[in-house]
């Protein structure tokens, strides 16, 4: 008798958003059995949130704000939760001055005298057109003295120190797509995201994901390391890190990790917005005040200071893949091995080694299952 845990269905490793979508689709849409194996003692991966003793919904692994332009993703999620109409707005403290981020026309007037702000605003419109978005590394290339001065200011006061804290290296040394996530906005809109759909699930992400995986065809095993159990499967969907799966045989894929320091205050609010970025001072990158997301009512508040650090196995967790040519080459070596194993797929931020937002992780999972079930 084989001692392996027998399972003729699908195994999903990791119960974050990617694993939950895969499990949900296989179980609910295709009526297949799924076992989800999760190392942690909770579901929802990095989206995990919980209510603390003050009734405040805490995002354990940092702020998660849902936004998408994709109708399929939005309609899919509405099956599991309603969303509020929260629109994310971020303030950066630039030498102590509260400034809207993404840097936009309002930011110009916050940091410069009115006549200079007016002149720069018109130059930006002339060069790029109203409502366009310009990544900082593009703006830096502009051949105009005034805009060059502005680019230099934004680079130094918004991106340089923050990026050094976040990635350990300056903006030019990371993939240009990373700073392009927060482009300069040629307009007055203060929202961090301009997507058609945005909001926070009204009972939190953990509840949303719980609904996704609550199905007679799905079994969830928490506190279980995939490596420690023998399991037969029809298909394996692995959302953990691909290098670890292959015992690091080609070397380790680098990641950035985060550390969160939580503080509680006996006052209603600590700051005006859910996130304040510290772009010119402090060792932490930003402060989150979670009660803003669901408008939680409490006389107390909880804030979290976010520090970035290198990922080290056994010490902390993987949060961000460090996407560059060298690391993609290494990833591709592992991927080639993976593609030679039948019925095995990698996905998610760690499995694909991609800096996915929540909606992109969902699209990836939906498309993967669609391609397999065709
Ligand atoms: N960034 C920055 N200053 C800011 C905001 C963002 O330098 O005030 C850069 C930084 O390199 C960061 C990247 O832009 O890693 C992407 O920012 P985003 O807010 O999308 O990061 P996330 O919320 O995913 O950590």
Structure description:
The protein is of the alpha/beta class. The protein has 13 helices and 18 strands. It has a 7-stranded mixed beta sheet with strand order 7-6-14-15-16-13-17. Strands 11-2-1-12-18 form a 5-stranded parallel beta sheet. Strand 6 (90-94) and strand 7 form a beta hairpin. Helix 1 packs parallel to helix 13 (358-373) and helix 3 runs antiparallel to helix 4 (114-128). The relative contact order is 0.21. The model has no long low-confidence stretch (mean pLDDT 96). The structure holds uridine-5'-diphosphate. Uridine-5'-diphosphate binds next to helix 6 and helix 7.
Concise account of the structure shown:
The protein has 374 residues and is an alpha/beta fold. The chain has 13 helices and 18 strands.
Properties at a glance:
single chain, 374 residues, alpha/beta, 7-stranded mixed β-sheet, 5-stranded parallel β-sheet, 13 helices, 18 strands, globular, binds uridine-5'-diphosphate
Poorly predicted regions: none
Q: What is the helix fraction of residues, given as a range?
A: 25-40%
Question: In angstroms, what is the radius of gyration?
Answer: 22 Å
Large-scale geometry: globular
Query: What is the structural class?
Result: alpha/beta
Number of helices: 13
**Widest sheet, order of strands:** 7-6-14-15-16-13-17
Ligands bound here? uridine-5'-diphosphate
- Beta fraction: 15-25%
Between the first and last Cα atoms, what is the distance in angstroms?
35 Å
Mean pLDDT: 96
Instruction: Compute the number of strand runs.
Output: 18
> Largest sheet, described in full?
7 strands, mixed
